[in-house]
Every structure is written in C-alpha cells, then in structure tokens.
Amino acid sequence: MTSILHWATWIAAGAAVACGFPARGAELAVEQAIGSVSLDGPRARGVKPSPDGELVAYLKADPAHEGVSDLWVAEARGGKPFLLVAGQSLERSERSLSGDAFERRERMRITTTGVTEYMWDDDSRRLLIPSGEDIWIVDVATRKLARVPDNGGDHVDVRFSPGGTRLSFVRGRNLYVTDIGSSATRPLTTDGGGAVSWGLAEFVAQEEMRRSSGYWWSPDDRYIAAQRVDESGVDLVPRIVTGAAGSAVVEQRYPRAGRPNASVRLAIIDVASAKPVEANIDIGTDYYLARVDWARDGKTLFVQRQSRDQRRLELFAVNPASGAARLLLAEKSDHWIELSDDFRPLASGGFLWTLERDGNRHIYRFGADGKELAQVTSGDWPVSAIEGVDEAKQIVFFSASRETPIERQLYSVSYTRPAEPKRLTKGPGWWRFTFARAPQTFVGTYSDPRTPPRTGLYSTSGRLLRWIEPNTLDETHPYWPFVAGLPKPIYGTLQAADGQTLYYSLQMPTAFDPARRYPAIISTYGGPMVQTVRRQWGDVTDRLLLDRGYILFRLDNRGSSNRSVAFKTAIAGKLGIEETRDQLAGAAFLATMPNVDPSRIGVMGWSFGGFMTLMLMTEPGHPFAAGAAGASPSDWRLYDTHYTERFLGTPMEHPEAYDAVDIVKRIGGLKGRLLLIQGMADDNVVFDNAIRVSAALQKQGTVFDQLYYPGGAHLLRGAAQRHLWRSYLDFFDRTLKDAK
Known about the structure:
- The chain has a domain of 251 residues: Rossmann fold (3-Layer(aba) Sandwich).
- It is 15% helix and 35% strand.
- It has 13 helices and 44 strands.
- The strands form ten sheets. An eight-stranded mixed beta sheet has the order 37-38-40-39-41-42-43-44, sandwiched between helices. Strands 1, 2, 3, 4 and 5 form a five-stranded mixed beta sheet that branches. Strands 14, 15, 16, 19 and 20 form a five-stranded antiparallel beta sheet that branches.
- Strand 2 and strand 3 form a beta hairpin.
- The N terminus is likely disordered.
C-alpha cells in the first residue's frame, strides 16, 4: 500500500487553480449540473467522418431544448461548422416507438431525442437519419432534408446499402429493402413476428455483447447476411411496470442465468430474389453469434461463434452462394474470451485481429487460411482498439495505454514489418478516435481534468488540421462561473492482495482547508469491462459533492478493463468477492488520510456499483457509515445469461458462487444507513432485485431509506435525474454531516 500523501500535496490539491481563472467561483446547484445547457460545453458526439474524409458530421446538444441533439457538419479544409439538421424539427416523428425500436434505444443507451442516429452514404453526399416512424435523407451540398415516402410503421436499424441506391430496415420483425429512386418497398423475409425476428440482434447481443445490429450488407450490394432469432424457448418473465399513470404487467422474453437462450440461425439473402441460403454453422441455443464481417471483395463472410461458456471463440469463412463454412481458427481460454470490434479484413484476403494470446490484448496478422503470420504488437500493456488501417502503406493505427492505464494515446505500426509503435498524440490525458475510411485523417477528442473534451481533425502524423469543437474553457464557456473550483484529482496506486496494482483518484472539497477533517465518499462501479479512474474531464456531478464539503475517492479494482488478462480474470468464478476486497483496501487507505474523518465514510454506486455498495455494507468490519445503492442486482440468478455465466458459470453448476453474492443472504450483516434506489420500469436490473432486498430489511426490522422512480428505466433522465441528485445530497448530509 502506498504511503500517506505528504501534507504539502494535500494543500496543493486544494490550492487555487491555474492563472487566468477567477479567484472565486459559485457553488454548483443541481439544476445547473443537470440542465438544458451542459456545463461540459459544446461537445461533439457521435462523430463520423465522411468516407472520402472531406467532411465530418457530429451531434451536438441543442442549448434551447433539453435532451435534443442536432446534426452538424464541418469541412476538412476549414471554415465554420454549420448546422445541417435541427433535431427539434424531427421531434414529431418520435411520437411512438415499437417495442423493438424502444428496446434497441435502451440497449444503445440513447438518452436524447432529435437526431440520435445517422449514416453517410458511400459517395459522401448524403446522410440518412432515422427518426421513429420516419426516414429522412439530407443532401449535404444543398442542405435539403427530404422524408422518404413509406406506408408507415417503425423502422429499426435503418441503413443505406453500400451502393447508396437502397435502404434497409426491420419492421414488424421482418427485414425490408426500399429502392430510393422509386420508393418501392418489399420484404426480404416474411415469417417474422411474435417470438421470431429477422435482422434484429437478440437481447443479450445488444445488452452484453455490444452488437446492436442483426444484419450485414455485402460490399457489392448483392447479399444481406441476416440472423433469424426464435425466442419461443426463452422464459416469459412477468415484469410489473409502474408509472405515474398506473401499473401494467409486461411479459418479457428474458434469458436468465442458467435458462434457455434464444435460438439463432444465420442466412445469406440474395437481395434481388429474396432467396435465403443458410450458413452451415450450428448456433442454436448453445452458442452465440458474436460478430459478422464481409471480406473486402464480398466473396467470403467471416463469422465469429462463441461457446455458451465463453471459453471458446471460433472464426468461420462462409461461402455466401452455398452457405458452406470452414473453420479458420479457434481461440480458447481457461476463463473467458472477450469480444471486440477489431476484426479487420484486408484486400489480400487475410485479416488483422486483436487477441489475448500472450496475457494482454495485442494485434495479430493472419493469412486468408487463418494461419498466424505475425504478432504485430507486444508488451506488458493492452491494445485498446484498432482505430484504422492504411493498406497502401501497410500501417495499422491503434489506441492504447502504454505508459499508464489512466491515459490513452494513438499509435501506428507496420503490420508487415512489426517494430516499436510510434506515438502520434500528445497530452497527459485521454483520447478517443474516429478514422475516415480514407485513412489520411482522423477525428480525435481529447480531455484531461483541466481541459473539457475538445474535438479536432488530425493528419495521421498527429498534426492538427482544424478544430471541430475546440470547447475552450474561457469566459464564454458555461463552466466558467464555477471554474475557480475546478477539481484537481490526485492519482495514485495501491496493491491488491495478490500483488497487482490498483489505480485510484482522489478529489478534495472545493473549499479545502488543510486544518479540517472531512467526510469522504467512495464512488464505485467495480464491474468488469469498465474503467472509472482516467485522467480525463470529470463528471460535472462530482462538483455537487465537492462543493458541499466531501472528499471523493474512486478505485478500479481487479476485474476492471484496460488491464492484463490476469488482472481482469482475477474475479473468475467469484464475481463480487475480489472486487469487494479491493474496495475495502481502498477504504482502509482512505481512512488513514490526515484530512479524512474515518467515522464519516460513505459509499455510492449505480447498477454494478449499486451491487458493490450492498456487498461492501454487508461485509463484516466495513468502515461505511452510509451507502446509496441504485439499480442494484441483488441475486445474479435474476440477471441474463451472457454476462452472468461468463463470471459465475450457471446456477446449476456453481450454486455456491451465486449464494456467496446473494445480497439477501448477506443482509443480516448490514451496518450503516442504506438508501436503496430503483427505477420501476427497469428492464435490465428488474424491480424484483430491489423488492427482495426491501422485504428482507423490513422482515429483520432494519430502518432504511428507499427511493423508487415511477416509469424510471435503468438510466434516469431529466427531472428524475435531478431529483436523484437532490436525494443523494440530502441523504449524505443527514448521515455523514449531521451524524457528527
């Protein structure tokens, strides 16, 4: 464990910020932190360069309408970015969404209206904008917005065909194509409906596998590979949805851990004839259709199939004309294999792919026969993602955290003559990247704790070509009235029980006084595939706690992402156990800090973080005086197959692993005041999880606080989110401040 920070470091953490900022700032109110104008400033979201690299499209919040996104475009050669489509003009078409359309939005975590999705055509002239029952096409040169004529009904997963002459979408659980010139629409499938769907990713693919689509165009416009899903074998789980107007019982096809999955088949449909050919790959209910990609020439379909226990991932090459499949390679793991979007077919017929063969995720090059030709990157650090490929120069661009896990940069390396990667970006912070199909430029978004997210267009040498959204923190920025209290996180490391390094961040109260002791709150997530400790622009809601005199602490426990295989798989078979130990080690470290009052430490978290809050507060000898647990799984038998079985196996095979982290079985050990929070229409962590904890607490006579949101989904928005944060502040003020 690292030693206590030197007294001078603590004073520096609370000292005045950089020169040029106001000497004093206002205290942040909830309505300002979560309002119509984001204090993060004018951020560019959903950035997509045009295929030719000449234009950059992006979404930006409409400052006059809370929760509405507009579509903007910037020219690569310069000039002022311009508003292409105002999201408010599309608002009428959001009037109603079918179950499939609504659920897909939930799975994609789309929380805005207006322009929420869009797509370039291959000629870089038009943009496609689906919006509820309407489909819009906008010509970038003329800025003319036209509605595609149709006979009504929701359109799910709308796309241009690669040639730009057709549209494709799912409606009524069948796959359709529309000829743009004539507006003629015809179905490619007809047996969809009820429990059967075509072209829709099943629940676990959308929620856990990060795959939101269920169909894939071939590059030559000839075929569409589409999955057929039959959910008739999946349990119908009754779920009570309670809103302000009343309650209703919804029967949801939900594959709980150990129970049957949907049955999946993959077919290749000839678009002209609508004739399907089934891919000769057994998926059914015992495997997952993980990823699907076309070869560059459209003559081969690459299919990734994952075993249900997720310890085997296979890559097949499928002939689209016959459906014949051959196994190219198979990856195995003693724990699980993480899926990625890094499969990159090459014109040669081979491909690049990231795999975790040497203990970290690295880039490998394969021939068309699936044989490994070279390991392109190596070292005791993981590749985050393949960002772009320049085949003419035989260079791959990738993001990684080579120097430290809390920063991310862009690198390039030859994939035919592997050497030391070249770093292309600068700054001690966190980058995100989007490459154009023509790999001469990329869009990069950078932030650090003192720099709000700024987006620019860069050459592949790393040179800034133009700003898209500079988001300068000056007198015109919405954060400026509060900038004097801009947090200055301290980053450090601790050692886990097995010797692995854990990273933490520590933020001091806005009006920090080194002579005082303060209450502290640990904000935790703790779940797999997530990293919370990053050197980036922080969540503005942190200020709500810091302004009110709390010290804020975060720690990435074992199992978190962006680390080695050994670090991520330390939780295998014991989800929640090692994570709890690491967070308790962080709490013990926090309690030794000279300005922390160890009798006034709280904990808070949402989703897996809510589960962690309950685990921590029921662990013997914990130091927490209070905790707020939101949307918390309380019994992993109630959660879905793909996520839960990856870490715990099935309940039939490992009942003891499930029992060890069943919150109700641990609830007798609860100490400290608990605030239990749940959305009453959550279809991810269903309401049953909160109800069983409430019932157990009432049965044993424990006084606690509970906060249920009528109509609230897994993520709360708008007024509900503002109310949630007022409740957080009230709860911790009562339990950590007034308790003194």
